[in-house]
Amino acid sequence: MKKKDIKILLVDDEPDILEIVSYNLQNEGYQIFTASNGVDAIEKAKKTNPHLILLDVMMPEMDGIEACEKIRALKGFEEVIIAFFTARGEDYSQVAGFDAGADDYITKPVKPKVLVSKVKSLLRRLKENTAEIENIITVGNIIINRDEYFIQKNKEKISLPRKEFELLALLASKPGKVFKRETILETVWGNDVVVGGRTIDVHIRKLREKIGDAYFKTVKGVGYKLNV
């Protein structure tokens, strides 16, 4: 998908923020739409069908958390990428954001160039939407081959136990997306007996040792994501 075809909805009650962010993203070639509160955001989302929504938390009429929940409930908006862009950096605010259906959480202040980079990272998921059903997943210098059940990093093959492999494949299916712990347990372990609440943590630790610590990001109280 070309940049000129990608639509981004910015939602913030501060005009200066909307102006600065719009300017920088428009310079990248994206189509930009704006809203100043949660109610307006829902209406603009229905009209524009954005690929990405950057959503503030504290806003008049309807806050970002409620707006996110309502947007996620709209037919056809199950896969839209939603990221909170807010000064609320507390753990409980982030957890509430992810529980509402957000894919990521960006804390203000952030330099424009960094924000643009984060947006590009989020938009990579547009071409990863069907990655989970593909037999070969490529993320950076890592190739995950589901047919032969091995991974390759920098042309070196690495064999992994089944659960570690499936955990890595899940995270790699949507690089940058935060997968909640309950989603990981349900997808990777299913009805298998899980011994202890730190099962995921142990498997992530082993993957860090074998693949590299920098690839895995812990989102406290929520889950994990694969850095890209």
Task: Write a concise synopsis of the structure shown.
By secondary structure, the chain is α/β, with parallel strands linked by helices. 39% of the residues lie in helices and 21% in strands. A five-stranded parallel sheet has the order 2-1-3-4-5, sandwiched between helices. It has a four-stranded antiparallel sheet with strand order 6-7-8-9, covered by helices on one side. A three-stranded antiparallel sheet has the order 10-12-11.
Structural class: alpha/beta
N to C succession of SSEs: EHEHEHEHEHEEEEHEHHEE
- Report on the biggest sheet: 5 strands, parallel
Total helical segments: 8
Low-confidence segments: none
Mean residue pLDDT: 88
Task: For the largest sheet, list the strands in their spatial order.
Answer: 2-1-3-4-5
Global morphology: globular
Tell me the radius of gyration: 18 Å
Please provide a written account of the structure.
It contains 8 helices and 12 strands. It has helices at 15-27, 38-48, 64-73, 91-99, 112-123, 162-173, 181-189, 199-211; strands at 7-11, 31-35, 52-55, 81-86, 104-107, 136-139, 142-145, 150-153, 156-158, 179-180, 216-219, 223-226. Strand 7 and strand 8 form a beta hairpin. It is globular and about 50 Å long. The model has no long low-confidence stretch (mean pLDDT 88).
Features:
single chain; four-stranded antiparallel β-sheet; alpha/beta; 8 helices; five-stranded parallel β-sheet; 228 residues
Topology:
Blueprint: E1 7-11, H1 15-27, E2 31-35, H2 38-48, E3 52-55, H3 64-73, E4 81-86, H4 91-99, E5 104-107, H5 112-123, E6 136-139, E7 142-145, E8 150-153, E9 156-158, H6 162-173, E10 179-180, H7 181-189, H8 199-211, E11 216-219, E12 223-226
Parallel strand pairs: 1-2, 1-3, 3-4, 4-5
Antiparallel strand pairs: 6-7, 7-8, 8-9, 10-12, 11-12
Helix pairs in contact: 1-5, 2-3, 6-7, 6-8
